[in-house]
Design goal:
The chain is α/β, with parallel strands linked by helices and 308 residues long. It has helices at residues 6-18, 21-28, 32-46, 62-90, 102-106, 108-119, 132-140, 230-238, 284-303, and strands at residues 51-54, 57-60, 94-100, 123-129, 146-152, 163-168, 174-179, 189-191, 199-202, 222-226, 244-247, 258-264, 272-279. The strands form four sheets. Strands 4-3-5-13-6 form a five-stranded mixed β-sheet, with helices on both faces. It is globular.
Length: 308
């Protein structure tokens, strides 16, 4: 009887994330027929079809969704074992070069680095803050081992051929930063209609990075100020001069006098994600960084749970 394999699970996960066999093959550096063979073998092992076709590609069946829930955990557990054995062998000494776009470099990546270095004190980690295109160039040139980049709506369609890509799911989308004395600051969540008359502080990210204007679904929003850096935008918010769109990934970085709020907006379709990228033959150091990022995201999610 066929058995589940880690390769089959990784391919299944990639197909689900990409929505097509072709895109998964490109991301993994496989041929499309090799991806198809892995899916067929995995379906044989579980005894059920994993994907169904639709107009724009494929989507998981109910059986596929069930397998995916376990596949992520199984792959993470397997990599954790590899890392522990690698750590016993070489203690993960040496230097690891990590890149991150500015929002991710504000909280998530530094906390993951601290977690990694606590577990492996002989490992030195360097952080390079830059836009996604510059990071990917350095990664392919061998000057970075891990890149943390932003992908999706309004951003370039990066070529990840021959690279390993994993989505970082932080559990927070975009929200708004308001002054702590603002009339909305007493809430944890506001409706988009509450923002219609606000003055907006907008700006542009680094090259290839996310660009933040006013709230995306508002018609004719009033822009009060434009500023390039996050520090300046948040400084304007802290002075009570307006509100600003802010990704949840950086919600924990707001300065004194500023509060981050979730926004309920049924019309919003904001398709951006943070992904970790490394070589397909990544070193134990790079794989350890991936695991530290997963652990940090899980830790942040636990911190955000409401008290019982």
């Amino acid at each position: 009887m066929p058995e589940l394999t880690l390769t089959g699970l990784r391919v299944t996960l990639e197909v689900a994330q990409r929505g097509s066999f072709t895109a998964a093959a490109e991301a993994l550096g496989y041929t499309q027929s090799a991806v198809s063979r892995q899916i067929i073998a995995t379906e044989a092992a579980v005894g059920a079809p994993l994907f169904e076709r639709h107009a724009r590609g494929v989507r998981p069946t109910l059986s596929g969704e069930a397998l995916l829930r376990y596949a992520r955990r199984m792959i993470a557990d397997a990599e954790a074992v590899e890392l522990e054995i690698a750590g016993l062998r070489d203690r993960l000494a040496g230097r690891l070069a990590v890149g991150a776009y500015p929002t991710a470099a504000a909280v998530l990546v530094p906390r993951a680095i601290a977690r990694l270095q606590k577990a492996h004190p002989a490992l030195t980690v360097g952080l390079w803050e830059a836009g996604s295109p510059a990071q990917l160039r350095r990664l392919r040139a061998g000057r970075l081992e891990v890149a943390v980049v932003a992908i999706g709506e309004g951003l370039p369609d990066y070529d990840f051929t021959g690279l390993r890509v994993e989505v970082v799911r932080t559990g927070r989308g975009i929200g708004v930063a308001v002054h702590t004395a603002h009339s909305l600051a007493s809430r944890e969540e506001v409706h988009v209609d509450d923002l219609a008359q606000e003055a907006w502080i907008v700006g542009a990210g680094e090259e290839g990075g996310p660009r933040f204007g006013a709230w995306p679904t508002l018609e004719a929003p009033r822009v009060a100020y434009e500023a390039h850096s996050w520090q300046t935008r948040l400084g304007l918010v802290a002075a009570g001069l307006g509100v600003s769109v802010m990704p949840g990934l950086a919600a924990d970085t707001v300065p004194q006098g500023v509060k981050w709020l979730r926004v309920e907006d049924p019309a919003l379709v904001f398709k951006r994600e943070t992904v970790m990228v490394t070589a397909t033959d990544a070193s134990a150091r790079a794989r350890a960084m991936f695991q530290a990022m997963r652990d940090e995201v899980a830790g942040l999610a636990t911190e955000r749970q409401p008290p019982v």
